[in-house]
Amino acid sequence: MKKSVYALALLAVSAQAQALITGDMAFTSFNADNDGWAMVTFVDIAANTTVYFSDNEWNGTAFADTNEHALEWNTGAATIAAGSVVVFTEIDAAPEVISASVGTLALASSGGTNLGFAKSNETVYAFLGASGVAPTTFLTALTTVNDTAPANVTNAGLTIGVNAIALVNDADFGEYTGARTGQASFASYASLVNDAANWNDVGSGEFTGNVLNSTAFSVTAVPEASTYGMMLAGLGLVGFMARRRNNP
Asked: Which of 7, 28, 31, 204 is the most buried (most CB within 10 A)?
C-alpha cells in the first residue's frame, strides 16, 4: 500500500512540473538603471531547470551581435510553484553583482562581454537552449522597441500582448501594476501581464534604488472534473490495495 501511495505522489509531482514551453513565464519588472528584472511563472518549474537570458537581437536564425552577453539561471533543487515571482539582479558595476531570489544566476559560458541593459531599443529574451547563444524555445521577451510587432520579437516566434511585452521607447523602468489575485488560472494572467496598459512604464529618470515587486500571483480555481476523477481513481486504488492486504 505504501508503494502505491508513493507512486501516486510521484505521478502528481510529474504532472505538475513539466518542461517549460513558450508563454509559461512573463516579465513583471524591468529596470535598465540597475540592470534588474522580475518574472512570474504560470506553471510549476521542475527542479534544476536551466533558463537563459540575453539582450542580444535575434534575427530569426541567430543572435545578431556576438558581443552581447547571456546569463544562465539554474532554478535550484526545489520545484518553483506556479504564481511565484523571481527577482533577478545584474548590476553592471565594480564589483559585478549577479543574483536571483530563487536559484542561482551567473554569466553563461557562451556570449559576449557587453554587460548591462541599454536604456533605449532594448530587447531581453528568456529561453531554453543548449547554451546562451543557441536557443531552442523562446519562453518570452520584453522589449522597449515601441512597436506592435517589433522584428526582434516576431523573429523569435513571440507575439506582443500574448507571450511578450513591449514598453515605450527609451524606458528606463517598467513594472506590472495589474491584478495578482482573482483569476481562475495562472494562465489567465498572461494577457494581463503582457499588456503595456497594465504597466507603470517610465521613459526616463533615475531608478537605481527601486525595489522590484516580488508579490506572488494567486488563483481562485475550482478543481476540474478530470481532477476529481484522478482523485477518485487514486482513492479507489488505495482502497483496493487495503482490501487485498486484509484479505490475503
From this structure: 28
